[in-house]
Every structure is written in C-alpha cells, then in structure tokens.
Amino acid sequence: MRTIVITGGTDGMGAALARHFLTTGDRVVVIGRSRAKFDGLLSALGDPSAADRAEFVAADLSLLADSRGVVAHLSARHEQIDALVLAASFIRSRRHATVEGHEASWALFFLSKYILVTGLAEQLRAAGRPVVVNTSVPGARADAIDFDDPELTQGFTFGKSNAQQRRANELLGILATRENPDLSYVTWGPARLVRSGLAGDVGAGMKFAAAILAPLLGQQPADAVRPLIDLIDDPAPGRAAYRGPKPVPLVESPRDEQDVIRLADLARADESGT
Ligand SMILES: NC(=O)c1ccc[n+]([C@@H]2O[C@H](COP(=O)([O-])OP(=O)(O)OC[C@H]3O[C@@H](n4cnc5c(N)ncnc54)[C@H](OP(=O)(O)O)[C@@H]3O)[C@@H](O)[C@H]2O)c1
Q1: Which Gene3D superfamilies does the UniProt record give (predicted)?
Q2: Is residue 243 within 8 Å of residue 190, measured between CB atoms?
C-alpha cells in the first residue's frame, strides 16, 4: 500500500487528492489546521476502510516548529513515503509576521516545504518511485529572490513574495533531485483558476476573484487535480514542471548553482535560528 502525504489536504485541491487516493486504497496522511474539515472529508466518503487508512496531523505550517514536528511525527510512524504533495496555501497580499518572527508567506510557501522535503528525504528514498508534487506555479524569473532580504522586510508586494517562493521551490527541486536521483519532483500550477477554498487574507481584487470569478469560471478541484493523479501514479525521475496537464520548460539559469547553495544556507540558518 502506498503512503501519500498531503499538506493542505483538508480543502481545495489537496482534499480532492486525499479523496481520490483514499478511494483507490492508498494510505493518506492529511496535514492541515482543521480536524473538523478532515472529519467532514472522511464522513462524506462514508467508507470505513478509507477511515482506517486515513490519518490527520494538525499543524500550522507557517510555523517552523510545527513543520519540524510534522517531520518528527511522520519519521516515527512511516518508514516509507511514496508521494509528498505540498498544497497548503494561505494567500496574503500584505506582509505578516508569525509569532516566530518569520514572514508568513515565505514560511508557509517555502521554509516549511524545505523542512518537509529535506526532513523526509530518507522516507522518500525508501519508496521505489518517490514523487514530490509541489503546487508552486513554475516559471518564476531566475533573479526573483532577494537573498539579502528574502522575508521582504522592505517593499513587500504580493507579486515579489509570490515570485520569490516560486523560484525557491524550483531551486528546492534541484537540491532534492541531486540528493536522490530517483526522486520525481514536479512543480505544478493549475491551467486556470480553481474553485477551491482560496484561503487567505487578501485585498479587494483577489476577494473579487475568489467570491465571483472562481464560482463562475473556476474549475472544480477534482477536475483540476487529474493531471496530478497521473504524475503521482507514474512518476518520472528528475525535475519537471506543468501547468495543468501540459509540461512547461524548466527555468534554467547560469545562477542556479550558486542560488541553490545560498538558498540552502538561508533555510538552514532560519531553521537553527528559530
Ligand atoms: N485555486 C487556484 O486557482 C490556484 C491557482 C494557482 C495555484 N494554486 C495553488 O494550489 C495549491 C492548492 O490551493 P487551493 O486553492 O486548492 O487551496 P485552498 O482550497 O485554499 O486550501 C488551502 C489548504 O491549505 C491549508 N492551510 C492553510 N494555511 C495553512 C497553515 N498555516 N498550515 C497548514 N495548512 C494550512 C488549509 O487547511 P486548514 O484550513 O485545515 O488549515 C487547506 O487545506 C496551493 O499551493 C495554491 O497556491 C491554486
């Protein structure tokens, strides 16, 4: 039986994947903050055997301590992880510092992912054909990260913050596949807006998109994740990037090598400093 770990598995696309893999007989570990949403997901499935294969781990992944706690918990309980899906999301259009003092979006959309991918490397290595699916829209500019101020204490904008996380998640893929050449690491964004929870604390434009456009034009989460199911069921070693079902070119840059080292140094310093 495969073990599939899904952050943000209580809502939106993460929940659609959790429902799918519980239906197909896999073991699914859902990570999120709301046990009530997880319980609702299980009772809607109405399958006692699915409930036996499902596990919920409560964590606020914008906190490094919680992300490390998830790694410790999963490492103690699971020798092998076949798929790690990174889909936790809380969109912020304004800068927000967590109680640990980190910028919340950088912590949730990158530092937490770094902790999970590197911390669970051994469990992923134990799987025959491991895959990390990082729902981070590919294609950010190679110079997107401000290495002197990655938490954007000056001049925070949603655009800068988003581009930094996306570039960082592509660099994380270089690091992870270098350490495990059998690993499939996919950065993926939906082909169009998805009618998901769109959790966040955002301005008027994004609220409008979430409240009006998503219900009118958005794709259902279960439809949006179909390409991800194929990528998890038949993973190809190495890095890849997709928009919906379509492969897109990886951003390759002469600065990749130095940026991977700088990013890993940054993440390790943040980890030990918290
Ligand atoms: N929807 C779109 O159109 C769209 C477009 C482009 C990219 N994406 C990307 O696709 C992925 C999935 O998005 P979605 O729209 O399906 O998400 P969503 O419906 O908004 O759900 C977000 C999930 O993240 C969890 N979450 C939020 N904050 C968390 C925290 N601090 N710690 C732990 N879990 C947390 C929520 O669980 P709890 O409530 O239980 O905490 C929930 O399960 C994200 O990476 C998103 O950026 C989505």
Answers
A1: NAD(P)-binding Rossmann-like Domain
A2: yes
For residue 123, what are the domain limits? 3-273
Q: Which residues line ligand 1 (CB under 6 A)?
A: 8, 10-14, 32-34, 37, 59-62, 87-90, 108, 135, 137, 189-190, 193-194, 196-199, 221
In sequence order, what are the beta bridge partners of 247? 242
**What is the average pLDDT value for the chain, to the nearest integer?**
94
Query: Alpha carbon of 98 to those of 60, 63, 168, 204: distances in Å?
Result: 10, 7, 20, 23
The percentage of residues in the chain with a pLDDT greater than 70, rounded to a whole number, is 99
Of 109, 116, 114, residue with least CA distance to 137: 109
Distance, in Å, from the CA atom of 197 to the CA atom of 188, rounded to the nearest integer, reads 18
CATH code of the domain containing 121: 3.40.50.720
Q: Give the pLDDT of residue 178.
A: 96
Distance CA 65, CA 49 (A): 32
User: If you search the block for the tokens 């490397």, which residue do you land on?
Assistant: 121
Domain count, the chain: 1
Average pLDDT over residues 219-244: 97
Is the pLDDT assigned to residue 273 strictly greater than 80? Answer: no
